[in-house]
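Reviewers of the previous submission asked for a worked example of the structure-prediction workflow described in the proposal, so we include one complete record here. The input consisted solely of the amino acid sequence. No template or homolog information was supplied to the procedure at any stage.
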Amino acid sequence: MLSHLTTNFTRFFRENHHFEHLRDEVLPGLIARAKAGGRVRIWSAACSDGQEPYSIALTVLSQLPNAADYDFKILATDIDPKILAAARAGIYDENSLETMSPAMRKQWFRDVDVAGRRKVQIDDKVKRLITFNELNLMAQWPFKGNFDVIFCRNVVIYFDEPTQMKIWSRFASLLPEAGHLYIGHSERVSGDAKNLFDNIGITTYRYIGRNGGKRA
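From that input alone, the workflow returned the following structure tokens.
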């Protein structure tokens, strides 16, 4: 029933400006911390069939090829256990890779046969950076620590306004000062959380802290 009720449209490097910002503006600091022995966590909320968290992982690996050697982890969650199983498998139609370069496709994907059909499967080195877990955004979130980056794109728009405001505030509670939140092209942070973020780019937000106030 969940599979029929939820929207699972996605693609690799969808809204690519987010991945460019992550690569150029955010990852340098996170990589430096990881190399110094620090902890780095990124959350892909409502990850669908895995193309978003895999895009995040590929962006990380482009800058830190041995990321798995550090405490650098990506959590990917979704409410639908069926779509999560597909995400863990990392098997896609060939046309799913049209948004990436031939060099990236060659480096990180291999051809596989699935019931007589040619598909592609993502490399285990990419998978090792990601943990896939079932999570309902409307329920409790069993997290013990902060996330440096949260991706939650084109999901909150499907909730009513009071729920949207509550979720933005919950995301804020999980971000350290200067942590980043990427949201969907039709979404805007609203409610009390609006005063906790700077809008620093197209649907790109930086948490400024509860005592920071809203900067111009």
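The beta strands are 40-45, 72-78, 91-92, 109-114, 117-122, 130-134, 149-152, 180-183, 197-201, 204-207. We consider this example representative of the routine output the project will generate in years two and three.
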